[in-house]
Amino acid sequence: MNPSPNFVNSMLSAVTFAIIGIVIFVVFFVILDWITPYDLWKELNEEKNMALAIVVGAVALGLCIIIAAAIH
Fold it and tell me: Looking at residue 54, what is its pLDDT?
């Protein structure tokens, strides 16, 4: 049973948009890290700053929702 061309096109589109969304998210996270006055990765991993982790997580979810809505 060969997959229909429509299914293949849909899967290719889904993978393409997922990759584009991930790349956009990573770029925006790097920009967020760049504009903050301290090193986010150090604060999260070494200092265990829970408040910063919650803020960064909320920003990440917000960015993901915006990216998903733009791609959809």
Answer: 93
Question: Which SS3 state, helix, strand or coil, does residue 57 take?
Answer: helix
CA distances from 58 to 13, 47, 53 (A): 28, 19, 9
Q: What is the pLDDT of residues 20-36, one digit of tens each?
A: 888 888 898 888 888 88
- Residue 67: name the closest of 21, 29, 2 by CA: 21
Domain chopping of the chain, boundaries: 5-71
Assign residue 42 a region: left if phi > 0, alpha if psi is -120 to 50, beta otherwise? alpha
Is the pLDDT at 70 greater than 80, yes or no? no
Q: Find the helix or strand (DSSP H, E) in which 36 lies.
A: none
Instruction: Write the burial class of residue 63 (CB in 10 Å: 0-12 exposed, 13-18 middle, 19+ buried).
Output: middle
